[in-house]
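## Example pair
The file below holds two records. Each record gives the amino-acid sequence first, followed by its structure token line.
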Amino acid sequence: MAEKYDVIVIGGGPGGYVAAIRCAQLGLNTACVEKWTSDSGKQVLGGTCLNVGCIPSKALLESSHKYEEACHDFDIHGIEVKDVSMSVSKMMERKNTIVKNLTTGIGSLFKANKVTSIHGTGKLLGGKQVEVTSAKGDVTVYEAENVIIATGSTPIEIPPAPLTEGHIVDSTGALDFDEVPKRLGVIGAGVIGLELGSVWARLGSEVVVLEAQDAFLPAVDQQIAKESLKQFKKQGLDIRLKARVTGTEVKRGLVTVTYEDTKGEQELKCDKLIVCVGRAPYTEGLLSPDSGVNLDERGFIFVDDNCQTVVPGVYAIGDVVRGPMLAHKASEEGIMVAERIQGHKAAMNYDCIPGVIYTHPEIAWVGKTEEQLKAEGEAYKVGTFPFVASGRAMAANSTAGLVKVIASEKTDRVLGIHIVGPQASEMIAQAVIAMEFGSSAEDLALTVFAHPTLSEALHEAALAVDGNAIHVANRRKK
């Protein structure tokens, strides 16, 4: 007779492992299936985010930023350094140590919370059965009262740029270069392309980013996007819009990329090429024909607002379902589903999910953009504040960017907050909290912010919504 659990989670990434832990905390007998295997044959938890995504990329971004500061910005503080060099191998070693510490930490959390970890590839069968195939090919079938699918996503490959060993790589390969490429090409000016391009540009690569779309960061508020593009160009990133890649060729260790832009066919030569044009939901071999679970027209698992599939007791969360492909969104969906399985009326506010790009300056946002509100015909008002007027930003020698607050013209309720600037990834949490509690711009304006802090820029932007900013000239009231 098959072993039975209250909950089986398929996938041990930030959606799956968080869901499993929360289910166990709620008293449910829980197992988590994960197929990722280390070189030594052991199970690796954490999924893409911890192993080849969010965490390693941030480690490299931090190291490369410190190197760039030492090379170019220390002198303004009176710090004199000579002959600064970067050991790529040490940088990678540090990155790998951080990843190992975090992934093994999840295993410890599983033990502490009594989550059963099952090593193998999971497949959903009919009747809420889960088939697990080990690396050796052994097959075991488990039964569950509830199943949570959290299999994540995989990088999209494009026919004009097939991946090759060492020369044309995806985002995973770009985290493991053993030296700084002299010339680096990046296909895709999205979050991943900008972050990885920034890492290697700081270390000395000549970076060209090819983006097929005619707008830069179209999902981001365009005032913020334009300011970001200006800063990236200052840093030496060569970002070419309306550039559609048509082919690639690797010859004698050199990658030749052909692409079309408004001037016709162009050619780019580089030592390495990173393909990061987006990610697709990972459902390969996941669903048996009789599982009853449906995919939508884009290949995502179809779920309702509470992540319930059409099969009662079967849920799906994270990158494999609709919505932004973000680790924090996956984790919160996992907690929501765990609570609902236990009978609690949990829900998730999809209007308050922050987005972040960890470049320098950082870009972060929550809520609606000015372009979205215009398209919807909603009356709104805007307040902005530049970091160049912030005393704390001046002290940190990091004055690029601004904070933008958008509020309803009728109710003053905050509809969106957008930031490009220092520590935007941390500041955006204040915006999320404000919007989660239905804050008005006046609420933020009446809140006491510590001085001197970068967060005062948010305070001033909220004041500026009604023309009341103190530390920058206000627009004249009509």
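Second record, same layout:
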Amino acid sequence: MSHVAVNAARPETREQRAWYWYDWANSAYVTTTATVLMSPYLTTVAEQAACPGLPSGQDCTTSLSVLGIPVAPGSLWFFTVTFTTILSAIVLIFIGAIADRSPRPTRLFATFAWVGALAASLMFFVAGTNWQLGAALVVVAGICLGASLVIYDSILCRIANENERDRVSSKGWAFGYLGGGILLTLNFALDFFHENLGLDRAMSTRISILSAGLWWAGFTVIPYLGLRHLTGTVETPVDRSAGVVRGSIVQLRSTFRDLANYPQTKMFLLAYLFFNDGIQTVIGSSSVYGSKELGFSETTVLGVFLFVQFVAYAGARLFGRVAATIGAWRTVLYGIGLWTLVVVLAFLVPSKSLVIFLALALLIGIVLGGTQALSRSLYSQLIPRGREAEYFSLYQAMERGTSWFGTLIFGLVYQFTLSYRWAIIALIVFFAVGGALLSRVRMREGIEQAGNPVPSVI
């Protein structure tokens, strides 16, 4: 079967330039709050609630009561993330279908973004022993972030044709690393000089968390204004007579039925669920692992994450060049192997060993950008032509809404061992299973089944 490209790549459009800025906007929250600061900060607040007056450096052995269930303070963050992502798995999968039926999808996207940014900003008021407010705001911000990203990804199919999406998507990803890195740099400076500014550590952390929420809200204005004229969907117009809710459910049933016709696409998604779950859990647990298990100060952890943020940009470019030579499928497989090495090295890193911790951060940065970017491009080849929006909605829903088992395992292992080392090494199973499943994906067959042209190097 031969395929002829109908739409040639155009010069960068105004809509595409506006679209990039949402990666810039939300990555500040993802990096500063969700990845670096909120995990150890909420853990500290929870420890103060469970063990008032606990000396610094000692483990709190008293449990919190969450709906009558005893939860170790050190597990609170991971169980909160687990709950958020399970709930997201139910919510996010509807968002793409609902957005297709919304007369103003950009308004819906911005509404989710701004509600999430509001929740992120209100985290400033989490102080003392008020861990309940912190956990609730993490849930709201996480669900709204995922919902906005579902619509954000589907908008890509409306502003870029098949010959532009790799370029547009990659540039947006790069914008995300850059925006997240810049705000993290500013917050690192605030943390480093907080005493000179008359602030204690808790207040400087809260100000940094507030800055991420305001950054997210402020820069969302750019894509909203630049894309607000968009209506409907370009690829597959939908029947709006069924209404938003019932019509969305009908479309979702159709999507899942249709997925059965593409076994290689389904196999890739299953593999992705496992290895992405491992990646997201490593990322989400890194700050608390560095501070609570390895004994580094918050300033050191913040600096290391800043380093990772910019290395990840270079890593994505490096993996892209490797993929051009040996193919994206093999490159992602090798990346999964490197992630396995990451968790083994993390388990073995001695406490207070900054040089080894930096080497581990360098490896994480290199493999982080590459595996994420290439996984999305691989999946795009397995999507049936003309149905990109709904399939990318499914992909985003799975990426953001089903990465819960890793955090659950991490939290449970810590709950029973009170050791983050055993919790981190337990994640090796996700990379082993994900890699094994990905190795069984027959990319050429899947691309042809989807009706797409086969690249010269797969």
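Notes on the second record: The chain has one domain: 19-449. The domain at 19-449 is CATH 1.20.1250.20 (Growth Hormone; Chain: A;).
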